[in-house]
Design a protein that fits this description.
CATH class of the largest domain: Alpha Beta
CATH topology of the largest domain: Rossmann fold
Radius of gyration: 21 Å
Strand content: 15-25%
Helix content: 25-40%
Shape: elongated
Strand order of the largest sheet: 8-9-7-6-12-13-14
Amino acid sequence: MKSGKIRALVVDDSAYARVNISKHLNADPDIEVVGTARDGFEALEMIRILRPNVVTLDVSMPRMDGLTALEHIMEECPTPVIMLSVLTAAGTWETIRALELGAVDFFLKPSIATPAGTSKIALELRKKIKQAAQVPVSKLHSMSEPTIVPHRIIPRTIKPRRRQHRKVVVIGCSTGGPQALNDILPHLPGDLPAAVLVVQHMHPGFTKSLAGRLAKACEIAVREAEDGDLLVHGQALLAPGDWHMIVDSDHTVCLNQNRTECGVRPSVNVTLASVAKHFGPDALAVILTGMGTDGARGATLLKAAGGKVYVEDESTAIIYGMPKAVVEAGSADKILPRGEIPHEIVLACGDSESEGAEE
C-alpha cells in the first residue's frame, strides 16, 4: 500500500451501523472512510470506482449478501476484506466460509455497531483495518467449497497403542490461518503416524465451526478439542477459542484459561511449551501466517528439546509476522512455501523408525 491514509469502504445494510462504524474508523488519523454501501451490488460498484485499500463487509444483506459479494470481489477486484460477523450458529459458519473465500479477518459486529461499542473495541477494529491494509492483493484468492471426503470418526474414549511413533505436530496460525489450514490439512493422509494439534487465534464459538468445515475436506479426523482428549494418530484437535491447550504427561489434552500470552488465548507458545516438555525430539512445530510473535518462544523451547520447527515462507503467508518472529529467533529448521508444507509434514513424521507396534 502506498503511503498516506488507509482508504476504507464500509458495507452494511444498517444505516446506523454504517454511520457508527465510519465514525470509529475516521477517528483514527491513519484511516479515511471513502464511502459506504448498503449491499453487495453497491459495494462492487464503489470498489471499482473508489479503489479502497480495505473493505468492511456485512454478512447478511438484501439483494446480494456478503458471501456472494466477497466471491465477486475476489474474482473481479481483489481487495482486503474484513467481515462483520454475528456470534450465532449461522453467523459462525458464514464467517468461516468467508475466510475460506479470501477474507483477511473478521470482527464481531454487535460490539462496534451498537452503543455498547467501547473505545477499546473500536481500537481493535482499527488495528484489524491496518493489518488488512498490509496484505498484498496478489495473496488474496477465493477457494471452492471443500470436497467432502470419507474420514474416520475417532471416539474420545479410544486409547493410543503403546510404543507407537510418538509424533506430535503442532500447527500455529492467526490472521489468514483458516485458509492456510484449508490448504494444508486436506493434503495429509488419513493414516498420518502423528497426532496433530492446531492453535488458531479465534473468538469462542468460531473454532468449532472451523473444525467442522475442515473435517469435511480432510482424510484425517478433525474436531474441536475437549478437556481430557487423548492424542491419537491421524486426528487433528483444534484449540477452542479463549482456551489454552496443553498436553499432559499421559498424552491427554488439558484446557485452561490461564492468563493470555502475547495478548492471545489460545496461545501457540503455551501448547508448544507443553509438547516440548513431553515429546521433545518427537515433535514438529509448523508456524503459519499471522500477526505478532506468538509461537516464537514455544518454537525455541521445542528446538532446544530436539524437536523440529518449520515456518511458512513470506511468499505465501498472508501476514508474515509469526513466521518471521521464529526465523529471527533462529529457531526455524525449514522455511517453506505453503504448497510444500503437507509433504514435509509427512516426511518429518516418518523420519524416525517406529519403536514397534504393541506386541
